[in-house]
Structure formats: C-alpha cells, structure tokens
Amino acid sequence: METKVRHLNNNGKPVVGEIDTSAPFESVKEAVNLFGEGAFSFNKPILRKQLPKSPSSETLNVKETQLRLAEKELNKYKEQLKSCELAKVKVLDELDTGEKTVNYLTEKLKIIDQSREEAAKVTETEKLQTKELQKSTITKNAREELDSAQEKYAIFNAELDSAKQDLRMIRKQLEVSMNAKVLLASKEKEAKRLVAINKEQAEKLLNEIAFIQESTMHVNLACSQAREEESKILSDKDAILKSYKFALEETKKKSSPLNEEFKAENVTNLETKLSDTTRAIKLLRKKIEIARNSDLDLLMTKKSELNDAREVLQKLLDESSFYRNSVKSLSSEHENVKKEHLEIKEKDAKSETLASNLNLKLQSSKAELEMAILGESKVVARFEELTSTLKQLSSESENVRKKTEAMKKESEELMLEAEAAKIEVEETNIKLNAALAELEEAKNAEVDAQKKIKILFENTNQARTSTSDSKSNSSITVSTEELESLNHKEKECQKLAEIKIAAAVAQMEAVRASENEATEKIEAIRKEAKKVEEATQDALKIAKMAEAATMAIGGEVKRRQREREKHKITTPSSSITGVAKPNVITIESIMANNSSPTTTTKKTGGGISNLSAMFYSRKKPWFYLD
C-alpha cells in the first residue's frame, strides 16, 4: 500500500515524500537507528573541498599582478621625484654659490681697481721723483734712492701684471658661472619633461583605479547573487528536512497498528517485508546522503567563492585607497614641483639681472679705469698745486702776522689818540660850561643895566616936566656922555657874549666831530683787528691742515709700501685676494677732523681769499691717496 504526502515549504514549492508501508519496522528505535541522528543534526562539521579556480579568480589574479606593476611604477616615479628634488636642491645650492662668487668677484674687481689706481699714482710719483733726481745733482744717496725707486717701479709693474692675471681669472670664473647657468636651464627642461611624464602616468593610474573600481562593483554583484543562491539552497534544505520529519512522524503513527498486525501475521512475511523495507531504507538513505553531499558541496563552494571574493574585494578596496592617497600625494608633489619650478624661474631671472648688472659694472669699471688713467696727470698737477699753495700759505701767514703786528701798533696809536681826544673833549666841555656861566652873568648884567636905563629915562622925563619937584626931591642925574658910554658898553657886552657863544658852539661842534671821527676810527680799527685775527686763525688752521695732510700722506705712503713689501715676502702668489680695502685720505676728511670753520670771512691780505676759496669751494674730494 502506498501513500503520497505533499508538503509546501516556506517558498511555496511542493515536496513529494513516498513511503512504502508494506515492509514495516520491527520497532521505532530500529527505524531511528536506521535513519540515524546524524541525518537530522545541524551541528555536523562541514568539510571544505578545494574547488578548481573559477575564471573570476583568474581575472582577479591578473588584476593583482597589474596592481603590483602599478605599485612598482609608482615607486619608480617616487624615486624620480626624489631625484628631481635632489637636483633642484643642488641647482639652488649652485645658484647661491654663483651669487656668492659674483659678489666676491665684484669685490675683487673693486679691490683691483683701487690697487691699480694706487699703483698708477705711486708710479707717477716715482716717475716725478726720478725726473727730479735726474735733474738735481746726483749723489750717492740720490743714486740709492733712484735704485730703490726703480725697484719699487718694477714691483708695481709686477703687481699690475698680477692684477691683470686676476682679471683674466675673474673673466674665466664668469664664463664658468654662465656655463653653470646653461646647465641649470637644461636641468630645468629635464625637470619639466619628467613632470609631464609623471602627469601622463598619473592619468594612466587613475584610469586603472577606475577600472578596478568597476571590477569591484561586478565582484560585489556576484557576491550578492551567491548569497541569494545560498539562501535559496538553505531554504530548500530546510523544506526537505521538514518533509523527512513529517514522514517519520507518519511512519511512527502507522507503525503502531502495523506492530499489532505484525503480531497477528506470520513471521515469514514480516521477514521478507523487513528485508524489502531495509533495502528501500538503504536506498533512500543513499539518495539522501547523495543529495546532502551535493548540497553541502555547492554550499561550501559558494562559501569559499564568497570568502575569496570578500578577500579580493578588501584587497582591492585597500589598494584603491592606497592609490588614491598616492595620487593625492603625487598631485601635491606635482604642485610643489610647479611652485619650485616658478621659484627657479624667478631665481634665474634674478641671476640674469645680476649678470647684466655685473656686465654693466664691469663696463663702468673699465670706463672708470680709463678715466682714472687720464686723471692721473691731473692728480699729479693738483698735488704740485697743493705743495705750491702750502708754500704760499706759509709765506702769506708770515705776511699776515706782520700785518697783524702793524695793525696792532696802529690800533694802539689810535687808542692813544682816542684817549687824548676824550681828554680834549672833557676840557672843551669844562670851557664851554664856564663860557655858558659867563654868558648867563652877562645876560643878567644886561638885564640890570636895561632896568637902570629905564629908571634913568623915567627920572629925566620927570625932571623936565616938574622942575619944582626936582629941586625939592633928591634924584640921580646922568649926563648924555655917560648915557652914550653906557649904551656903548651894553653893545660891546652883547657883541662879546655873541662872539663867546659862537666860539663855544664851534668848539663844541669841532669836539663832537673829532669825537665821532675817533669813535669811527676805533670801530674801523676793531673791525680790521677782528678780520685780521680771523684771517690769521684761518691761515693757521689751513697751514695746520696742510701740514697734517702732508704728514698723513707721507705716513700712509710709507705704511702702504711696508705692507706691500711684507705682503710680497709672505704671500707672493695670492697678492690680490688678501688685499685690504684701501683707506682714502682726503683734504676734506682732514679738515672735518680738525674742526673746519663754518664761515669764510673777507681777508684784507692779497692771496688769502683765493686760498680759502680753493679749499672751501670744492664739494667733492679731489685728492686721493690709496
């Protein structure tokens, strides 16, 4: 008897389970033992089988190799970038050294120009000395001086030759710096080319990273599909297990009446049926094991593929993040290289400007050398003028001293005359006061006389009118002669008073005029004395400054000659590299040190104004001694 049982699983798929009840089990325990507990247990260990690699794993291996190659290329590019940075650092160092050498060469050129001027001046002085010595009477000392001068002339010629050699060396160094500049330009071009190559390779790497990202997306899709298939397989397995459990329960339910029937039936039939059922059970068990093994194999393969895909995906994600970081670092390095390239361009422009400035300075120094050679004769002539002016100053200072002494004597005489004039003025003042007193007395006497005359006239009139009264009254009678004499005396007194007043006034005017003349003479003498004193002070200062200048010039010449001799003895090869900066001695510096006068006054002497104008009218230093 056969019964068909249909059971729906969770997915709605029908599962058919067929059980042959013709051969029942001897007992439920035996059926359970036949089916086994391991068939329904989910804790059975799963054995993984190594499956053959799928084509997706081969593509992943190919991509891994490509990624490794890309990493190697990235490492190469990094090494190239490092080498470019090192080359850039070297280029910057070379630029700094070039600037330093340029500055050093400019300083050397200045020193050489100064030493050349000095040598030219010294040679001119030596030539003049030799000419003077040849003109003068030649003695033993003069011959020795001539020999020493000739030796010095030869030494200066040797120094000039060494200066010329140094100039040649400087030109060679400039050529070397220009060659270095050309090399730097070529290195810059190579750096540009490497930057372009790095850009192209970075673009290639970005394209490869995009391709890898697409492949990771495909792998993720495949993993999701594998998970769905795995879930389906597990659901099918659950449905099969449930159907088996349901069939077992039904067999248990049916086995109880079968056992009762079994007792009643014959043992022989049972044995045959039992053998048939055992065979059928074995067949079912084999089928179940085969199905379970196939399901397990599929599940294991899918799980292994899923794990491999996950590992590959993780690797790809790590590599993509690494490549992104590397691309970012490469972009930042590229920007830094651009900035450094711009800086190098700016430095090249600066170096070009420096080179042009140096060329201009060289040309200007050449022109200055030519001008200095032309001006050597002028300097010598000015030196001779200075010596002649010194002699003139000494003679004029003596003349000024004599004139000052004469002026002092004249001022003393004028002072004596002024004192005598003052005494005369005082005496005239006394006389004038006495004359004024006499004049006042005369005026008073005149007034008294006029009063008396009026009284006399009144008395005479009264005497004429009243004779009777005149006889009785006692009055003063004056005759005509007395009256005329009195009038004559009055007129004479008036004339004398007028004469005395006029004489006193004239004497006062003369005294005042003489006093004014004396004061004017005294003021003029004082002004002249002040001018003479200022002129003498200026002349003394100029003489002192000229003496100091001559002393300083002589000492400087001697010191320079000693230094040159010592320098030639110690280091004859490097004569110009160790030359110190020459001290420039000018007349203006000496005048500033000796507190030069701020204002120039007019001199009474003949040549002092010309000399002061010659010393103070020069705005630029006109005499140098190096």
Automatic annotation (TrEMBL):
Swiss-Prot/TrEMBL GO biological process terms: chloroplast accumulation movement; chloroplast avoidance movement
Segments passing through the bilayer: none
Keyword Coiled coil among UniProt keywords: yes
Keywords, ordered alphabetically: Coiled coil
Chain intervals for the UniProt region annotation (Disordered): 558-577
Pfam family membership, one: WEMBL
Coiled-coil ranges (or none): 60-94, 139-208, 267-347, 383-459, 508-535
Compositionally biased tracts (Basic and acidic residues): 558-568
A GO cellular component annotation in the UniProt record: cytosol
Record family assignment: Belongs to the WEB family.
Protein name, as recorded: WEB family protein
Organism: Zostera marina
Organism taxonomic ancestry: Eukaryota, Viridiplantae, Streptophyta, Embryophyta, Tracheophyta
